[in-house]
Amino acid sequence: MGKRKERIQNPEPFIPVSDGTESVKSKKRSKAPKKHQKEGNLIESNISSKIMKEALIQLKEVHHEEDNENNTNGSFFNGIEEPPKVEEDDDADIDNFGGFSETQSQYGGYEEEINEEDERIMEAFLSKGQGRQKSLADLVVEKIKEKDASVASDIRPEPKMDKSIIDIYKGVGAHLSKYTVGKIPKAFKHIPSMQRWEEVLYITEPELWSPNAMYQATRIFASNFGVKKAEQFYKLVLLPRVREDIRKNKRLHFALYQSLKKALYKPAAYFKGILFPLCESRTCTLREAVIIGSIIEKVSIPPLHSSVALLKLAGMEYCGTTSYFIKLLVEKKYALPYRVVDALVGHFMKFLHETRIMPVIWHQSLLAFVQRYKNELQKEDKVNLGILLENQRHKLVTPEISRELDHSRNRGEKEDNLMSTYILLFVSFFTLLFFPKG
Predict the structure, then answer these.
(1) Helix or strand or coil: residue 194?
(2) Which of 213, 249, 256, 341 could lock onto 209 through a cystine, CB 3.0 to 4.6 A?
(3) What family does this chain come from, according to its entry (predicted)?
(4) Cα–Cα distances in angstroms (integers) from residue 389 to residues 315, 343, 382, 385, 393, in the given order
(5) Torsion of CA 21, 24, 30, 36, to 10 degrees
(6) Radius of gyration over alpha carbons of the chain, in Å?
(7) Residue 195's closest CA among 165, 219, 215?
């Protein structure tokens, strides 16, 4: 059976097959392909996957009108879209989930990075009105109230859909609230392909899911959702749950930590659904930044996504922990476009006349930026940063930043220019030595 799945997922070149029996020639072909053959099959598989997705989209459009006419009110699959292709092994792996052991119940090891003095200084940059993170329930209730203003605010309203669907997904929600290991209900796996997926997910009450259920849900949605839908799930379901767990327990459950790692399967959705809302709220604590940032630090992220993230963070209204995420992304040492480098210079220059004491992490993020991109800075940028360092000083970090700026070339200058200067001095010396004037 395993071989059969392998042939389906990695199609080999066409082999004539008779009535159920394989020829000697076909058996020889079934041997492990060489390296160059593997690469060729991989490319063909990716291309065929894209073609299949486009074909499914076109097929859905062709039959759209027929589906609208033939759909019945009580049909369970009303509003179903063709889901993106998912490998069969992923589903099998999800159903075979063995849970996390008790020794992995919580993520630790970050306490040494959290300093009480730093936390106190950062509080000066947090928003005073620390509101609750907006959740999926808030969004769906708003939609329901828009359609029906008479809905009471003290009860949990139900979306208007077939009662059988509501009953099914209430049962799914009850199962997920107690879930530890084993299979996930098939009805839950259909949610990513539904047009009204948010309302169906709301019925399952995600705020009550067990941590292991949240991990499984993240695996399913990260694999089956596009970027926009995945962003919504991260922002409205995963992020509120993570922040609530950190607030209550001062640490993060290991299953939720693994959920965040799995969410980075889609970097664009992760940044838009986790990192940006967290920083824009201006209520992100140092503990939250260290825990969530540790994932960004460990996982490889495409340079383009990191560049966009830095550009976005540089333009945000400042929250102390924003510096922590900037430092983590800068230390990945990607080659950044000049536009991003200039935006980061502008970000730091905004604090030229800041009267509040800047947290240590702000000085560390500036040092990390200068160490990595000092040769991409313009001459006037270095002059401006020098003025900034006179107003914003740290007894240990600032001298290091000044030293890095002083021992660097400007943007556009090449190391060859420095070598040419040495050659000219060398030639001049020997000219004076062998051909002295007078």
Answers:
(1) strand
(2) 213
(3) Belongs to the bystin family.
(4) 21, 18, 10, 6, 6
(5) -150
(6) 29
(7) 165
Distance CA 215, CA 180 (A): 10
Nearest to 93 by CA among 211, 201, 182: 182
Phi, psi of 152 (to 5 degrees): -75, 145
Let me know: does 324 contact 289? Beta carbons within 8 Å: yes
Q: State the pTM of this model.
A: 0.71
pLDDT at 95 over 80: no
Q: Using CA atoms, how far apart are residues 172 and 205, in angstroms rounded to an integer?
A: 10
User: DSSP alpha helices (H): ranges in 96-210?
Assistant: 116-122, 136-147, 163-177, 186-189, 197-203
Distances in Å between the Cα of 319 and the Cα atoms of 308, 323, 430 are 18, 8, 59
Give the number of other CB atoms < 10 A from CB of residue 173.
20
Which ranges of 129-273 would DSSP assign to H, the alpha helix? 136-147, 163-177, 186-189, 197-203, 211-224, 227-233, 239-249, 254-263, 267-270
**Nearest CA-CA partner of 127 in 296, 325, 285, 345:** 285
Q: What backbone phi and psi angles, to 5 degrees, belong to 91?
A: -65, -45
pLDDT the model gives residue 202: 95
DSSP lists the bridge partners of residue 252 as: 107
Q: Which of 116-125, 171-180, 359-368, 375-384 has the lowest mean pLDDT?
A: 116-125
Long-range contacts of 9-18 (CB under 8 A, 24+ apart): 9/45, 9/87, 9/88, 9/89, 10/41, 10/42, 10/45, 11/41, 11/44, 11/45, 11/48, 12/41
State both tokens at 18. 């008779």
CB 367 within 8 A of CB 397: yes
> Which 3 state secondary structure label does DSSP give 260?
helix
Contact 121, 359 (CB under 8 A): yes
